[in-house]
Design a protein that fits this description.
Strand order of the largest sheet: 1-2
Helix content: 55-70%
Radius of gyration: 20 Å
Distance between the termini: 15 Å
Number of strands: 2
Shape: elongated
């Protein structure tokens, strides 16, 4: 299952803490319902009390436009869907903040958990490279690279609106959060191969 292994290394190898396993699986598996509920709440607020978002959005936009992705996408919305600028600004800022806080708290939980049966990785460099490539890819798509819905033929009311962009942002944030969690878990359980109580390499074939 995704996020239960990292670069073919089984993160649950001989892991005995069942309470931790249940919480970890709950965190990484299933649809991102929490982010969907947050987005629906903001959308409901926009539909019923749009003035609130119109007041808050300019302040949040100053922070978002620092990131190339949102600088471009907000300009796109200003030209094609100006009525959605406040909505997308509040959605994006809220989802990013929520994901950062949730991932940070869960990472602290992983670090503070009592996890037995540490693992050894034979080729640590390749694992680090694969993990770094994964994390940087999603960081780039979340903070740097605007979604590829622009250019010739993309100026429609279907592609590039706040709902379409938010949906993909939720997916990307979910993947990044899971990737960071699996990285922290590996860092927590990994052990140098010269330790006396070492275990077998846990790379999958």
């Amino acid at each position: 299952m995704i996020f239960k292994s990292l670069a073919r290394v089984d993160l649950f190898f001989r892991l005995q803490n069942q309470n931790f396993i249940k919480r970890y699986e709950s965190h990484i598996s299933g649809p991102p319902l929490d982010m969907a509920i947050l987005s629906m709440s903001i959308l409901f607020l926009w539909l019923t009390r749009g003035g609130v978002l119109d007041y808050i959005a300019p302040y949040l936009r100053y922070l978002l436009v620092i990131l190339p992705k949102y600088h471009y996408e907000l300009l796109w919305l200003a030209e094609n869907h100006p009525e959605q600028i406040a909505l997308y600004t509040c959605l994006s800022f809220s989802l990013i903040t929520f994901t950062v806080v949730k991932t940070l708290l869960f990472s602290i939980y992983i670090i503070s958990s009592q996890l037995s049966r540490e693992i050894i990785v034979a080729d640590l460099k390749s694992v680090v490279k694969a993990d770094l490539a994964y994390v940087l890819t999603f960081v780039s798509f979340i903070f740097l690279i605007p979604l590829p819905v622009y250019g010739a033929g993309a100026s429609t009311t279907v592609l590039g609106n706040a709902y379409f962009l938010t949906f993909f942002n939720i997916v990307l944030l979910k993947m990044l959060s899971g990737g960071i969690s699996s990285t922290v878990l590996l860092a927590k359980r990994i052990k140098r191969p010269n330790r006396r109580d070492q275990v077998e390499v846990t790379s999958k074939d």
